[in-house]
Specification:
Elements: E1 8-12, H1 22-33, E2 41-45, H2 51-58, E3 63-67, H3 84-90, E4 94-97, H4 100-105, H5 110-123, E5 126-131, H6 135-139, H7 143-154, E6 164-168, H8 182-199, E7 209-212, H9 220-224, E8 231-234, H10 241-248
Parallel strand pairs: 1-2, 1-8, 2-3, 3-4, 4-5, 5-6, 6-7, 7-8
Helix pairs in contact: 1-2, 1-10, 5-7, 7-8
The protein binds 2-phosphoglycolic acid.
């Protein structure tokens, strides 16, 4: 992190969490109120069934709420889908879009991700747009070009400043315990910032670019204190308030500690 953007640590609960997990959300709110995240912004993205209950817990706290996906349309005959407007109505201010699990499992193309991100802009949400290469693409030396294509296809043409966050999540690092080298992360994040600047002139410098994929308390400082890394998108470790806050807690320290 070199350019002064406020770091963001977002927890992606994926398809995990019943009402009993509300205690984890409450613990996160308490820890953040006690200064446990330093200057970082904290967002929790529970499953849709828990959005409104989590919103009640987060209300009046500094913890934000995000959805994990949205439909491109505002309303209509789309059984099972949820619109960006509905997420906003439920209390969300963020939505994760284009996660690799949706790109792979729900055949989401860059075009679909862009339509969803455009819907997020329309509804007044911030979009966390996920990009990342497969192991085969990295091994073939194609990581940058693949991510470049994903960015070009997924970022809406018109995005108010500050409302797009990019999460670099190498597919092979998600849930595996594997992570890229610091050098590879630095190279990719610098590349993403340049590319974003091409698509949204002037916004690249201030845009937050998160790293995601096997972020844990033990590797958080090593992964997140890298130039151009402005926070984390955390999956597995976000299900435990203690682990999640141990990750966010690196922002209570200065980079040199
Ligand atoms: P992980 O997931 O932290 O469990 O690797 C990250 C993500 O998929 O957002």
């Amino acid at each position: 992190m070199t350019h002064g953007a406020r770091p963001l640590v977002a927890g992606n609960w994926k398809m995990n969490g019943l009402r009993e997990s509300l205690t984890e959300a409450a613990a996160i709110c308490e820890a953040v109120a006690a200064g446990g995240a330093g200057k970082a912004e904290i967002v929790v993205c529970p499953p849709a069934t828990m959005l409104m209950a989590t919103a009640r817990i987060c209300e009046g706290t500094k913890v934000g709420l995000g959805g994990q996906d949205c439909h491109a349309e505002a309303s209509g005959a789309f059984t099972g889908d949820i619109s960006a407007e509905m997420l906003k109505d439920a209390g969300a201010t963020y939505v994760i879009l284009g996660h690799s699990e949706r790109r792979a499992g729900h055949h989401e193309t860059d075009k679909i991700v862009r339509a969803k991100a455009t819907a997020a802009m329309r509804a007044g949400l911030a979009a966390i747009i996920c990009v990342g290469e497969t192991r085969a693409a990295r091994d073939a030396g194609d990581a940058l070009s693949i991510v470049g294509v994903q960015l070009a296809g997924s970022i809406p043409e018109i995005s108010p400043p500050g409302r797009i966050v990019v999460a670099y999540e190498p597919v092979w690092a998600i849930g595996t315990g594997l992570t890229p080298t610091r050098q590879d992360i630095a190279e990719m994040h610098g590349f993403i910032r340049d590319r974003v600047n091409q698509h949204l002139p002037g916004q690249g410098a201030s845009m937050r670019i998160l790293y995601g994929g096997s972020v844990r308390p033990a590797n958080a400082a090593e992964l997140l204190w890298i130039d151009d890394v402005d926070g984390a998108l955390v999956g597995g470790a976000s299900l435990s308030s203690a682990e999640f806050m141990a990750i966010a807690g690196i922002y209570t320290k200065s980079r040199k500690d």
